Amino acid sequence: MRLDLVIRNGTVVTASDEFEADVGVAEGRIVAVARDLAKGDQEIDATGLLVMPGGVDAHCHVEEPEYMGARLADDFVAATRGAACGGTTTIMPFANQLPGKSLREVVEDYHGRAQGKALIDYAFHLILSQVSAPLIGQELPALIADGYRSFKVFMTYPGYMLEDAQILEVMDAARRGGALTMVHAENGHCVHWLGQRLEARGETGLGAFAESAPPAVEREATHRAIALAEITGAKVMIVHVSSGQALEQIRWGQDRGIPVLAETCPQYLLGLGPHLHEPGWEAAKHVCSPPPRGSDDAAELWRGLQQGAFQLVSSDHCPYRFAGTDGKRSQGGERPHFRKVPPGLPGLETRLPLLYHEGVAQGRLTRQQFVAVTATNPARVYGLYPRKGSLMPGADADIALWSQGERRILRHADLHDDCDYTPYEGRELSAWPVVTFSRGEKVWDRGWVSNAAGRGRHVGNRSPS
Ligand code: DUC
Ligand code: ZN
Ligand code: ZN
Question: Which domain of life is it from (predicted)?
Fold first, then answer.
């Protein structure tokens, strides 16, 4: 068999195994994983490197509408470039329902934004913020039939928050079509009430942000989302879980056989909460929703990851710039105000190296668990497996080669997104993806990044497994 590419002598790491082998690629697909493969047209020496499936980042925000006056820094060019440099080969951003547009129009518009710009492959979730009888009766079933099988709903945020009756309708429609409902689980009424009380007391600094949405707010909404799933029989994904209390509810549901999946993110596993108390505007770099918590919650989340309560670690990349007229700083007036800073952090490029360092290098996760939660599980959950998230013959040749033992300091200046900071500035990393292949084409190689924006393709969803 003629091989276009052979990645030779690396340590192949999958969600279940680890072994020395060569990986052979033909026409963008993996065709062989074995020792001593025949010579390929292109040969890569991976001696000493880990050969892993490219990451699948199943939660990121790219080119969405403005929120609280702030605009996302990354378009599809920048987001997919950063992702590729960080070892990720598939992203799943959200097509966000807009007032006055049909969901179909929104999806078509979003395709238009990605086409011609994406460097790596992508699939879409949909955000539902306006629930109506035609949406439930016609639009959603038609989109599900076309392969859009994951919908995010919010239990908080003005303009997005749905009431329980609406969520029940969405979940029921999703269940009928075999789709997955993703839930942002925070009780918006409580966030609003707590926020008003803090304001009335004059506590408006960013330290108050976490107090306006404490773990009880997330715990209650998480339990309610699980109860709604139980009542409708729908499968749910609780996204970006931040607290041990929410995790307890997830375990509660899973122990009872309710189909509850869960995701957490590096910003919660790393316990960024104390940074919200940094003086001045610096704290704004750590404002995201739910708020990051402290080390006790982080320790609980690591346990949840180790025990399998969480299936996914995603970035929730939501890159509002710090400076500039559309950035976090300009939204708060003279002084930072906890209700005026738009929530969201950049993280597509840093997700994998941070999780490897904090998880694998610190002995909290095996390499198999790392691959499972960052690539294989997201591909499975969202119907992209085995084409994505896998190194088995027949899979797309989406592969990241990792160097370990190369200690380096994370600096925003070395990243490739269009944001102007990273909340992880100065952190130490012990492993890094040095080369990334997307469908057998090199898109990142030790500081070089492909400029072939537009080569990325939409990957149609199938029914979630
Ligand atoms: N959380 C964020 O921090 N930003 C965007 C949306 C979300 O749920
Ligand atoms: Zn959310
Ligand atoms: Zn999000």
Answer: Bacteria
- Residue of minimum CA distance from atom 5 in ligand 1: 344
End-to-end CA distance of the chain: 33
pLDDT value at position 98?
Answer: 83
Within-domain flag for 465: no
Beta carbons of 443 and 84 less than 8 angstroms apart:
yes
CA of 318 relative to ligand 2 center, distance in Å: 10
Mutational pocket test of ligand 1: of 59, 153, 288, the residue with most ligand atoms within 8 Å of the beta carbon: 288
Could you tell me the pLDDT band of residue 68, with boundaries at 50, 70 and 90?
A: confident
184 lines ligand 1 (CB under 6 A): yes
Q: Is residue 143 part of a domain?
A: yes
Q: What is the pLDDT of residues 105-157, one digit of tens each?
A: 999 999 999 999 999 999 999 999 999 999 999 999 999 999 999 999 999 99
pLDDT of residue 463: 44
Domain that includes residue 182, residue range: 55-381
Rg, Å, the chain Cα set:
21
pLDDT for 461 equals 55
Asked if residue 61 has its Cβ within 6 Å of ligand 1, the reply is yes
**Residue ending a domain, choose from 323, 347, 381:** 381
- Please give the distance, rounded to the nearest whole angstrom, from the Cα atom of residue 61 to the centre of ligand 3: 6
CATH code for the domain in which residue 217 is found: 3.20.20.140
**Ligand 1 atom 7: the closest Cα is on which residue?**
289
Distance 383 CA to ligand 1 centre (A): 23
User: Residue with structure tokens 């999703």?
Assistant: 174
Q: What are phi and psi of 444, to 5 degrees?
A: -150, 130
Predicted confidence at residue 67, as pLDDT, reads 84
Whether 272 is in the pocket of ligand 1, judged by its Cβ within 6 Å, is no
- Which one-letter amino acid corresponds to residue 178? G
Identify the CATH number of the domain in which residue 438 sits: 2.30.40.10
Q: How large is the average pLDDT for residues 204-233?
A: 98
Ligand 3 centroid from CA 93, angstroms: 9
Any idea what the Cα angle at residue 69 is, between residues 269 and 424, rounded to 5°? 25
Tokens of 65: 């509408």
